[in-house]
Specification:
By secondary structure, this protein is of the alpha+beta class. The chain contains 19 helices and 13 strands. Helix 2 runs antiparallel to helix 3, helix 5 packs antiparallel against helix 6 and helix 13 packs antiparallel against helix 14.
């Protein structure tokens, strides 16, 4: 292995490029037949190896690369002629032009454009005329070579250039360089074809070739982005670039289908890695998560590593990847990682939803149990008093209270979110049961018109009314003269309102009331929050209808949505 130990400043500086161009200029002045041409060309090739954008200066060259460079240098030196010089200049032109679009500064682009003009002038006005033995053009080219072109080298020295950007990253656009190489080679060969077939001079042949190529490029530009409804070559070329061994759209559909049908993140990752391993340029891959690790295929020195949260995915290629394919590999790896994280979050959301259902059901029913225990304590206090009325009240309330406690305990054993299977009871029977259950309390009951056959979710209505009445009774302990009124309306829409004549709810609690847990003097204020959520799930809405001193009203109203 051979390591190029050259500093970045020397390698990316313009001085190496200018020295390389000066050596090339000297070769062209003395001519390829001169004895000085070979050592000057050897110096030029050495400087080119220092400047070239294909291998990094701090990288290592294998035996294959060293052999290729040695064969190339020996072939150029021993077969040095005008044809070799022509194609060498065309290649240099493509390498220089392939980096123009990578520069950020307009001055850096101008610097590269001056280099391209210099190489193009050398090729078309000196090398090609000598190649085709065009004596008239050779004389003109000699004047340019000796007096005009050397003046461009000081311009290159004085031109400002960036110390970052494309120079440091050694970026080269392979397709753009190849296109420039093919276009310039077509200009040279087209000029030769016109000279041979039309028996005309080189300058006229060159002009005809350039004119014809201009027409072709103009037509291709129109087809690339047409104005008359045709999709154009841009779409076709983009689809070709996205084809990385398997149709890109098809691969994405398979990946999305795997993410949709896989039951969990680990099974999806197994399917996704198998899809990646099917690509012909992938030799193997490995992955590692917080739960497990795995691998497919064979490892290679050409690895691409991707991290996405707790997923580490390594893709091994069969050979060194070009920048375009490397970009695709990173894109595909990130897609796999994003879908994997989506599956992980989906599993977490399922677990959170399940726990939330357990919490909400348990919290709501626990609050209902608290209300029932308070009712039981009230009945116990009544039972301690003698009299037929107390005995009658116990006989009426204890069976109903016992039944409600049994239902609540059964729901605690099987929590569910929403409780869509809640029993439906006629509203008239429920209203009578509510009044009978709370007849020992000082409240006003008003139901101007009840539709007997109308049914309601009794458990939810009991939960809401128990919380509202319990809060009102607690409030009455600090405001003994407060009146409580319960009103049921069944006209246009079903609604039940609980009002008290106490003080208004503090303004600081209003933004969160019925929407979140509100801290209160009696506790966390979780009862109304859970009751409001349950009502919303069953197509009802619990709202604060009025909030002013002397009239605080909560209303449970049907929304028409179930």
């Amino acid at each position: 292995m051979l390591t190029l130990k050259l500093g970045n400043r020397l390698r990316t500086g313009r001085w190496v490029l200018i020295a390389m161009l000066m050596a090339l200029h000297a070769v062209l002045i003395v001519g390829v037949e001169s004895a000085w041409a070979h050592p000057l060309m050897l110096a030029h090739l050495g400087l080119f190896l220092i400047w070239q954008p294909l291998w990094r200066g701090e990288g290592q060259l294998g035996r294959g690369a060293i052999t290729f460079i040695a064969i190339l240098v020996l072939g150029v030196l021993f077969a040095l002629n005008w044809w070799v010089m022509a194609f060498w200049l065309i290649g240099l032109f493509g390498l220089v032009g392939g980096r123009v679009l990578a520069y950020r500064s307009i001055w850096a682009r101008m610097f590269s454009l001056i280099k391209m003009v210099y190489l193009l002038t050398l090729l078309l006005l000196w090398v090609v005329p000598n190649l085709f033995a065009a004596q008239d053009s050779i004389e003109i080219g000699r004047l340019l070579l000796i007096y005009v072109l050397p003046m461009m080298l000081p311009v290159l020295m004085m031109s400002p250039a960036e110390n970052h950007g494309a120079e440091n990253t050694q970026t080269i656009d392979f397709f753009y360089s190849l296109m420039l190489f093919m276009l310039l080679a077509l200009v040279v060969l087209g000029s030769l074809a016109f000279m041979t077939l039309a028996h005309i001079g080189y300058i006229e042949a060159l002009l005809r070739t350039l004119f014809l190529m201009g027409l072709i490029l103009l037509a291709l530009g129109g087809l690339w982005n047409p104005l008359f409804g045709f999709n154009g070559l841009q779409v076709v070329f983009s689809r070709y670039l996205l084809n990385i061994g398997t149709p890109f759209e098809s691969w994405l559909m398979r990946l999305a289908d795997a993410a949709q049908h896989s039951p969990n993140a680990e099974s999806y990752l197994t399917t996704a890695t198998a899809l990646l391993a099917d690509l012909h340029w992938v030799s193997g891959l490995s992955w590692q998560t917080a739960q497990k690790a795995g691998q497919l295929g064979a490892f290679s020195p050409h690895a691409v590593v991707m991290h996405e949260a707790d997923l580490r995915l390594t893709v091994y290629a069969k050979q060194s990847l070009s920048p375009t394919v490397l970009l695709h590999v990173r894109l595909l790896s990130q897609l796999v990682g994003y879908f994997y994280q989506a599956k992980v979050r989906e599993q977490s959301l399922r677990d959170i939803t399940r726990m939330q259902a357990v919490y909400e059901t348990g919290s709501r029913l626990t609050h209902d149990l608290k209300n029932m225990v308070q009712s039981l304590l009230t009945l116990t206090a009544v039972a301690q008093t003698s009299g037929a009325r107390a005995q009658q009240l116990l006989q009426q309330q204890l069976p109903s209270l016992t039944q409600r406690i049994e239902q609540t305990l059964s729901k605690l054993q099987q929590p569910q979110n929403g409780e869509d299977d809640a029993p439906m009871l006629p509203i008239a029977a429920w209203w009578d049961s509510l009044r009978s259950r709370n007849q020992h309390l000082q409240m006003m009951w008003d139901a101007p018109q009840i539709i007997p056959d109308q049914k309601i979710p009794a458990a939810m209505f009991d939960c809401v009314l128990d919380n509202l009445l319990d809060n009102a009774l607690r409030k009455r302990q600090s405001e003994p003269d407060m009146a409580i009124r319960v009103e049921l309306k069944c006209a246009a829409e079903l609604s039940i309102t609980v009002c008290d004549s106490g003080t208004a709810i503090p303004a600081g609690s209003l933004p969160y009331l019925l929407r979140a847990v509100v801290q209160s003097q009696q506790g966390l204020g979780i009862g109304l929050y859970q009751a409001a959520k349950w009502a919303e799930q069953l197509g009802y809405r619990l709202v604060l209808q009025n909030n002013q001193d002397g009239k605080v009203c909560f209303e449970l109203v049907a929304t028409g949505k179930t």
